[in-house]
Write a structure and sequence with these properties.
Layout lengths: L1 H25 L9 H10 L2 E3 L12 E4 L3 H14 L3 E6 L4 E7 L6 E10 L5 E10 L8 H16 L10
Antiparallel strand pairs: 1-6, 2-6, 3-4, 4-5, 5-6
Helix pairs in contact: 3-4
């Protein structure tokens, strides 16, 4: 009985420690809207981070690059994915789409990343859409949001972030 309790205690401490380590390592923007509680619930219960104009998470709103044509932005995105060490599975230069696999640092889980660049309504700029999804599990602990943020950081090294874009 005593050995069983010690085993349960050990496994509990190990599980909580692993969970906290992943949340800290992924370093999501805890202090940003919609707040710590909403973010924690999302990271524990969702395995997808996807840009959307209606997102409650500012970092998950599509980035608009006025004056930057889709061909140029897509080329920079393609290079950024490579620099991040993502395995590019498919790239369609004509459609400005890219599919890649990002591997998480801690448990080496593989996450699917899909990127699409579309022209703005006036055809003078480009809009970046990103979707990152874990292949397994119910919650990603912020890993997929981290993939989006890492992509933004790589892009920001090459091209200036668009005005009004979310910044850490």
């Amino acid at each position: 009985m005593r050995a069983t309790l010690w085993s349960i205690a050990f496994l509990t401490v190990f599980a909580v420690g692993s969970l906290l380590t992943a949340l800290v390592r992924n370093n999501p923007p805890w202090g940003q809207p919609p707040g710590f509680g909403a973010r924690l619930l999302t990271y524990l219960n969702s395995h997808v981070a996807e840009t959307s104009a209606a997102s409650a998470f500012p970092e998950l709103r599509p980035r608009r690059y006025p004056g930057l044509l889709p061909d140029h932005l897509f080329g920079v995105v393609d290079q950024a994915a490579t620099r991040l060490g993502w395995e590019v599975l498919e790239r369609n230069v004509q459609r400005h789409t890219l599919r890649a696999v990002a591997t998480t640092a801690i448990m080496r889980f593989q996450d699917d990343v899909g990127i699409t660049v579309v022209p703005t309504d006036d055809q003078r700029g480009a809009v970046l859409f990103v979707r990152a999804a874990s292949r397994m599990g119910r919650g990603d602990l912020g890993a997929n949001t981290r993939h989006v943020l890492d992509l933004y950081a790589q892009l920001d090294r090459v091209i200036p972030p668009p005005e009004g874009a979310w910044r850490p």
